[in-house]
Amino acid sequence: MIPDIRIEDYNYPLTDERIAKYPLPQRDASKLLVYKDGIPSEHVFRSLPDFLPAGALMIFNDTRVVPARMHFRRDTGAHIEIFCLEPVQPAEYNTSFASTEKCSWKCVIGNSKRWKDDILTYDCPAGSSLAAMHLTASLVSRDGQTGVVEFRWVGGEPFSRVLEECGQVPIPPYLNRETEAIDLERYQTLYAHIRGSVAAPTAGLHFTEAVLENIRDKSIDTQNVCLHVGAGTFLPVKSSRVAEHPMHREPFSISLDLLKKLRAGGRPCIAVGTTSVRTLESLYYAGVSIIEKGEPEDIGQWVPYEREYPYSTGEALDAIISYLEAHGLSELRLGTRIIIVPGFRFRIVDMMVTNFHQPESTLILLISAFVGGDWKTIYNFALSHGFRFLSYGDSSLLFRRD
Fold first, then answer.
1. Is residue 210 classed as helix, strand or coil in its secondary structure?
2. What is the 3-state secondary structure (H, E, C) of 222-242?
3. CB 168 within 8 Å of CB 72
4. What was the pLDDT predicted at 132?
5. At a CB cut-off of 8 Å and minimum separation 6, what does 336 contact?
C-alpha cells in the first residue's frame, strides 16, 4: 500500500544564512554529525574513519558532473539557456558523449516561450575560438519547460569536449549565484569518474585522499556504484500528499564483482550519499523482476510498497548474479524511480554518510525512513550547533534504526 504521508510534516526552519553558499577551504574540515543509538554528537569530518567499523564495505557513487548549462542566442538577440538532462539520440551516455557531429538530449529550456522554431547559435564571446565549432541547437519537441534539443557542431570534437568548452557547471539554484571558478573543482568529488550527472552526489564532496587512506587502513573495502543524478534532485515536492509526487528516472550501474561481495554478506554496508542508498536498495526489486519475469526491469517509484515480497535479499541478489553470468555481462545497468519514505524496508544499507537536505524534500523522507522517524532529533541538533546546510554544507554519519 502506498503510504499516506503529508510533506508538511517534514518541514524545518531553514533560513538563507544557514545555507552554505561556498565550500570551506578544506574539504575534510566540515563538521560531522554522528547519529548512533538515537543520540547525535558533533565532530569534524576528517575523524569519520574513527566511527566506521573495521572490515566494512563502503560504497561510493563515482558519477561525474558534466557542465550541462549552455547559453544560446536567437537571431533577434534573445538569450536562451539550455540545461542538458539526459541523452535521447544516442540514448547511452557514453555513446552520446562520444558523438562528433550531432546528438539530441532532453533539456530544461530557460526563457522557452521566446524560442520558436528557429535554430539557435551558441553565445560565444566576441573573437572566441569556440566560434569555430559553429555549435547550434534545434528544438525537436517541447513539453512545458522541457524539450528534446538536437545539437550540431563541426570540427570533429566529441560532445563531451563541446560541453567542457561551452558549458557551465550547474550548481544548485538555491545558492542564488552564478557558477564561479571554485565550483569547477569543488562541485565534484575527488573520485568522480563516469560523466553523466547534472548535480553532484554531495555527500562525497567532503572526502580527501587522507580520509580515504585512513578508511582503507581499517581494512574497509571501498567500492563504487554509478547513479547519474538528474535535475529532479532540485525539484520540490509540490503536492501536499507525497503519493502525488512523481519521481524522476535515474540510470545506475553496479558491477558483478560488487554484487558478489554484497551477496557474501557478513559485514556492515556503508553507503556514501542518498544516491548510493537508492542504487543499493533498488537491487532487491531488480532481482524480484528477474525471479518473476526473467528480465531485470526499471524499478518503479512505489514498487517497494505495493505488496509483500516472499524472497530473501540473498535470493534477489542471486537472481541478478545468475542473470549477468548467463548473459556474459560484467555489470547491471538499469533505471530507478524508487522513493524511500517512512515504512520502507531497508535490505542492504546499514550506515549512511549524507549532507543536510532541504525541508519538505524526498531526501528528508529518506533520512526519516533510515533513522526510524527520528529525523527531527538530527536536524534540531544541527540547527542548534551551527551546522551548515545543503550541497556545500556539513556532513553526517547515520546509523540505521529500524
1. helix
2. EEEEEECCCHHHHCCCCCCEH
3. no
4. 79
5. 227, 249, 250, 252, 278, 279, 282, 298, 299
Q: Are strands 395-399 and 31-36 parallel, antiparallel or unpaired?
A: parallel
**Closest residue by Cα to residue 226 from 275, 285, 175:** 275
Q: To the nearest whole percent, how much of the chain has pLDDT over 70?
A: 97
Assigned CATH topology for domain 7-65+187-399: QueA-like (3.40.1780)
How much helix, strand and coil, in percent to the nearest 5, is found in the chain? 35, 25, 40
State the Cα–Cα distance between residues 322 and 238, nearest whole angstrom: 41
Helix (H, G, I), strand (E, B) or coil at 138: strand
Q: How high is the pLDDT of residue 75?
A: 81
Rounded to whole angstroms, what are the CA distances from 111 to 82, 118, 149, 247? 9, 14, 14, 24
In 219-303, at which residue ranges do the beta strands (DSSP E only) sit?
A: 221-227, 250-255, 269-272
Q: Residue 6 and residue 368: Cα distance in Å, rounded?
A: 13
CA distances from 55 to 34, 222, 255 (A): 19, 10, 20
Q: Who contacts 157 (Cβ-Cβ below 8 Å, separation ≥6)?
A: 100, 133, 165
Q: 340, 252 in Cβ contact below 8 A?
A: no
Closest alpha carbon to 263 in 219, 317, 210, 211: 317
H/E stretch holding 366: helix 362-370
Q: Write the pLDDT tens digit of every residue in 196-229.
A: 888 899 999 999 999 999 999 999 999 999 999 8
Alpha-carbon distance of 10 to 137, in angstroms, equals 41
Cα 240–Cα 243–Cα 249 angle in degrees, nearest 5: 115
- Find cell 520502507 and name the residue: 344
Domain coordinates in residue numbering, the chain: 7-65+187-399, 69-167
Q: Residue 127 above 60 pLDDT?
A: no
Q: Are 181 and 23 in contact (CB under 8 A)?
A: no
Q: Pick from 378, 207, 252, 225: which is nearest to 367 by CA?
A: 378
* C-alpha to C-alpha distance for 262 and 281, rounded to whole angstroms: 12
